[in-house]
Amino acid sequence: MQYIVEAGNVVKKYGEFVAVNHISFNVSSGECFGILGPNGAGKTTTVRMVYGFLPMTGGSLKVFGLDISRDWRQIKARIGVCQQDNSLDPDLTVLENLEVFARYFDIPKKEARDKALELLEFFALDSRKGAQVTELSGGMMRRLVLARALINKPDLLILDEPTTGLDPQSRHQVWERLEDLRAKGISVLLTTHYMEEAARLCDRLIIIDHGLILEEGKPDSLIRKHVGRDVIEVAQPARELRSYVQSQNLAYEDLGHRLVIYCDRRDDLYLKITRDFCKAGCTIRMATLEDVFLKLTGRDLRE
Amino acid sequence: MKGMSEMSVSRRFLRVWQRNLKVYQKGWKVIFLPPFLEPLFYLLAFGIGLSGLVGSLRYQGTEMSYVRFIAPALIAVSMMNNSFFETTYASFVRMYYQKTFDAMMATPLSLEDVITGEIIWGATKSVIATLIMLAVISCFGLIHYPEGLLTLPLALLGGLAFGSIGMFFTGIVKNIEMFNLPVFLFVTPMFLLSGTFFPLENFPRWSQHVALIFPLTHLVNLTRDLCLGRLRPTALWGLGYLVLFSLIFFPLAVRKMRRRLIK
Questions:
Q1: pLDDT digits (tens, 9 = 90+) for A70-114
Q2: A91 to chain B: nearest residue by CA?
Q3: What is the C-alpha separation between B182 and B184, in angstroms, rounded?
Q4: Does some domain include residue B186?
Q5: Would you say domain A3-218 falls under CATH 3.40.50.300?
Q6: pLDDT tens-digit profile of A206-260?
Q7: Is residue B13 part of a domain?
Q8: Of B10, B15, B103, the CB nearest to A103
Q9: What radius of gyration do chain B's Cα atoms show?
Q10: Is this complex's ipTM strictly greater than 0.90?
Q11: Rounded to whole angstroms, how far apart are CA atoms B164 and B157?
Q12: What residues of chain A lie within 8 A of the CB of B98, using their CB?
């Protein structure tokens, strides 16, 4: 089977600093593949190499079976990119943004206009086609960036933090549109640090930090593997609870003011803890990808 | 990566040029005004104001009115300004604030396509400005035809030279305020000392040689010769200088922009 993206030992160095450290992964056709990581982990650097914006320091990178360092122009013609920064053209209207962008792909005028109008309708922007980009809300701008990324009918859609900075309504709208696109079979390479987004959209993902892959797998199986099914959180844990947890050989994380216990179908444990040890409050909830992420990348701030 | 670091200019640079043209067409009424009004203001100030003091002067052994002397220089200065300010301030805004180049480079366009399109657009603005100024100044009977029409291809060459060095500065400045340096150390001295307002023959010999370093000196000489309808063989030196200047600064601009944009 042919992969859409094949990254083999990809390295990116800036002087002594290693931004991406021998990363390997494959994206299959029709798959949504996620790259998760805290700020500065190397997500954007990795996808920029995939869409031929940055040269690699080492390794090999094939997209559609073609070599990115040689056939970049051909590859870029078949990719749609939604960059992190807003790069819409403020000198142009909504429709003009799509039409001018279509020209960069040598799409004939008539075809470009038809496709642009179709995309504006799909992203519920058709009523604003004559508006200046600067008049749009944040959510509309992001939808327009997505529309623009689809103007060349790409085989691979690369989304670099597509919903960062959006309000919940806009975020859900973007997710719905992306799910529609997924249903049509488009392959997606997505970076995010929203775990909810990754869990909802990604078939498979890698978690990276400091340019290294920490883990790879399906969202569900990663949660099972690293966390279990449930998480019990106890605020202001008493000393007795700590020794109890230790004595029971449970997987847990001690944050000082908070104890996080990872377990699997342990309602009995939760009842015992609430009855015997709980002072300030304790909750049981489903384990999420965020638990995996924090467990693997730590809780230190990244700045 | 070999393929990506090679100079790879394709015909797609025209797409970048078209994008700028489209924006220009949207605001042409405003953008049209400076090259239309500028020569009028200058001719008014110098023609009525300064001419009274200077009267006429000798240039290359010919007696002529002061207005006839400076009118071609105004066109040459405009060729410089239109391309230089396009590839400095305007390109910087597109590159840094609007992220237009980032968006373009996520398409089949290469960095070289983008930079080439920008510089040629700058040169195009020089040609447009020259065309408008030529029309205005012709109304005063100050342009000799048909030689005067050759200022249009000359504007393209001058625009390439000044557009290239402008883009070179865009590749190295830290922020937009830093353009003040090349403007006050490069553009303004040239504006005043390139034989624009006074014949260079009136300067000491050493300073005449210094003035030959300035690309604007050559552009002014060439434009003036064309507008006065007298082509001299020395014009070839000036043309050669401008071609050489472009051939040096165009690749330098691309290299600096590559270093700036592709990290």
A1: 999 999 999 999 999 889 999 999 999 999 999 999 999 999 999
A2: B23
A3: 6
A4: yes
A5: yes
A6: 999 999 999 999 999 999 888 888 899 888 888 888 888 888 888 888 888 888 8
A7: no
A8: B15
A9: 19
A10: no
A11: 11
A12: 87, 89-91
